[in-house]
Fold this sequence. Notes:
- The protein is α/β, with parallel strands linked by helices and 380 residues long.
- The chain has two domains: 6-176, Rossmann fold (3-Layer(aba) Sandwich), CATH 3.40.50.2000; 188-368, Rossmann fold (3-Layer(aba) Sandwich), CATH 3.40.50.2000.
- It has helices at 19-30, 47-50, 68-90, 101-106, 108-113, 142-148, 157-167, 192-200, 218-226, 245-254, 295-298, 303-310, 321-330, 341-353, 355-368, 371-378, and strands spanning 6-14, 34-40, 55-59, 95-98, 118-121, 129-132, 135-140, 151-154, 174-175, 204-209, 232-237, 258-262, 278-281, 315-318, 333-336.
- A seven-stranded parallel sheet has the order 3-2-1-4-5-8-9, with helices on both faces. Strands 12-11-10-13-14-15 form a six-stranded parallel sheet, with helices on both faces. A two-stranded antiparallel sheet has the order 6-7.
- A hairpin with a 2-residue loop joins strand 6 (129-132) and strand 7 (135-140).
- Helix 12 packs across helix 15.
- The longest helix has 23 residues, at 68-90.
- The radius of gyration is 21 Å and the shape is globular.
- The protein starts with 5 loop residues before the first strand and ends with a helix.
Amino acid sequence: MKKSFVVTVVHMKELVDYPPVLSLIENLLTNGYIVNYVGFGVYEAPEKIRKDKNFHFRNMPIINGNRVIDKIKREYIRKRYANIYTEEFMKASDVLWTTTDISVRTIPKICEKYSNKHIMQLMELEEWYPRIVGINLFKFPIEQYARSAWKVVVPEINRAHIQQTWWNLKQCPSVLPNKPYSIEAADANLVADAVKVMKEEKRKIILYLGIIAKDRNIDLFADAIETINDEYCLYVAGKIDNNMKYEFQSMVNKYKCLTYLGNFRAPNHLALLKNAYIGLIPYYLNEKHEFISPLNVQYCAPNKIFEYSSYGIPMIGTNMMGLRYPFEKFNIGICCEEMNRKEIKRCIDIIENNYQEMCRNCLNYYQSVNLDSILNNILS
Length: 380
């Protein structure tokens, strides 16, 4: 790395909603890079990032409202200021790092202008991307920007090869795993009540962290855990999907084993891991998404694997290659072959019978990924 190497990171979503972007910025700062951030949610980010002397930012203005005129205005403001702020920073930057597909769609001319400096990161696996989300008639030529970019970055090795094949990329994308750069909560006080509840729990806690939606089948896990006497319980933390609020509350009322802790923004949710016994990572194929491929789930790259493993917590997942491969190779978890009481109990029993070994394997797996080395290689 040369002296005063400057990276401009453009992220057109809320920063704390994307732990991999928080990890990227923390990684850059720790390794001595100067970071210019253009995006949303800076003031919700951890203080150690905001107050770093090498962190500079332009926080995007927010336009609220769900009327058509509000959406048009929001799109106009987002594109206008993202282009102004990014161009301002790029006058003295060595790298333009876009974090998502929408970031590229927001500043396409700048991505083209600085293509020899452009690192294009993709959070999802997709063959195509719409010009307007919700309208499939017009496609945004996102693959062209990937072909012209200096480098493309994805979170999982199979995704790298699939993306290269789909978009006819000259080089296989680099892999930057979705591992948290640090595993400390930014403000443990914000989750103190939830942590206290977990500490007082006498049963072994199976913990689910993430979006609470219909496709996560939390009810099937709760139903299975409910039948295992009082040895285990299911604790859930995360944002409840609007279509799931009534149904989830009915689950909480129905199952004595199920407790909802609340919704905690990253990285504060990490404080909940200290008292978990088993981690839950349910993924299910979604063939109805507008543009994201079902292979995105099949070759999932959840940061939860690293979050659980950082505390030595074995995991139960669903039968997806993105979970099965690390679970079997490193012996850190078990995938349910089917979703029923018998199979879920079988997975719990396997972990219970091999618990100490799997805990050690989890810690070794977490330590096996060197984010510093990976990032520096990408930027070299």
